[in-house]
Structure formats: structure tokens, C-alpha cells
Backbone:
């Protein structure tokens, strides 16, 4: 019997566009398993941006490892590759508003609690981000919406036919099941 659920998930892959979609689905499924559904969109966006950076910039190869780890009050998502060059964050405000690249790390910074990059030995680096789990783990107390107490006059319905006293059922004429 396992007393504590796994709090760690690792996926090794080659950062190709087709594989990035698969990793998004893996991360989403793992977060659902951990009951962290509110974090799925931000985690999937962040991991997509980090894997896209590996695909576009990493040398000598596109091999990498995605690691998600559930800590006490945060989720940590990291991508490790074999390129020792640390990412350079461009100034988003000075970027061309029609540019199709160069905003990935700015988006990671925008959706995460914190992020960073560090060398990983002599032949690689790790780029990571964290998301707070406090709001995702604690279910909010379900309260029905409070409606203002306003008295409305009761509607009167038009009477259509003769009144029927439902307390005294009327007798139906007897019918025979025999033909004739």
C-alpha cells in the first residue's frame, strides 16, 4: 500500500513540435491526478514555452527532461537540456509588437510565481518556474449566491373553466371492457 502519492513526474523527450503537445497532455493529466486542475492552463503554457525554447535554441541536440514536482505550497516545473548557454530575456516593451518570437520567457514570468535558469553541470542548464498551489488545493467553501430579499406581489392566473374541488374527486362513469 502506498501511503503518500508520488509528488514527482519526469519525462525525457526530444523537443520536437509533435512531442511538445504530448508533454502538455502528460503535464495536464498529472496535475489532474494531483487535484491541481486550476494550475493546468498556466503549467501547460509555461512548459510549452520552455520546450519551444529548447526546440529553437538548444545545441548540440534537442534532448531534454521535463520535471514537475509538487512541493509543500508550490508546483515546480523545470526543463533540463544539454546546452550550457543560459537564456537571454529580451526587453518585451522594446520588442516589435508584431514579432512572432521572443516573448516566451516573459509569458512564463507573467503566469508564474517565480522562474529562473541555472547551469546544470558542465554540459547543460535547467530553466524552471513555480506556481502557487495554496489556492488550487484548498477547495473554496461552496456558498449559494445570496439573493436580495424583495417582496413581489403574487401573480394571479386567469380562471379558465369551472372550479374543481381537488379534495373531492369526481366519479367517472363505469366502463366495460367487454365489447357489445
Residues:
Amino acid at each position: 500500500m502506498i501511503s503518500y502519492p508520488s509528488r514527482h513526474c519526469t519525462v525525457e523527450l526530444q523537443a520536437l513540435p509533435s512531442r511538445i503537445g504530448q508533454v502538455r497532455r502528460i503535464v495536464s493529466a498529472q496535475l489532474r491526478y494531483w487535484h491541481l486542475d486550476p494550475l493546468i492552463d498556466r503549467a501547460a503554457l509555461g512548459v510549452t514555452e520552455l520546450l519551444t525554447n529548447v526546440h529553437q535554441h538548444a545545441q548540440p541536440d534537442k534532448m531534454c527532461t521535463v520535471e514537475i514536482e509538487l512541493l509543500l505550497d508550490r508546483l515546480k516545473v523545470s526543463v533540463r537540456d544539454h546546452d550550457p548557454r543560459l537564456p537571454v530575456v529580451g526587453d518585451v516593451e522594446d520588442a516589435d509588437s508584431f514579432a512572432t518570437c521572443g516573448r516566451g520567457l516573459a509569458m512564463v514570468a507573467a503566469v508564474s510565481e517565480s522562474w529562473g535558469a541555472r547551469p546544470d553541470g558542465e554540459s547543460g542548464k535547467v530553466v524552471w518556474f513555480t506556481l502557487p498551489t495554496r489556492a488550487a488545493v484548498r477547495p473554496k467553501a461552496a456558498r449559494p449566491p445570496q439573493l436580495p430579499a424583495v417582496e413581489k406581489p403574487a401573480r394571479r392566473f386567469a380562471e379558465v373553466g369551472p372550479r374543481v374541488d381537488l379534495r373531492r374527486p369526481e366519479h367517472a362513469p363505469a366502463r366495460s371492457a367487454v365489447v357489445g
The helical segments are 17-33, 40-57, 104-111, 134-137. DSSP finds four helices and five strands in the chain. The beta strands are 8-14, 63-70, 74-81, 114-119, 125-132.
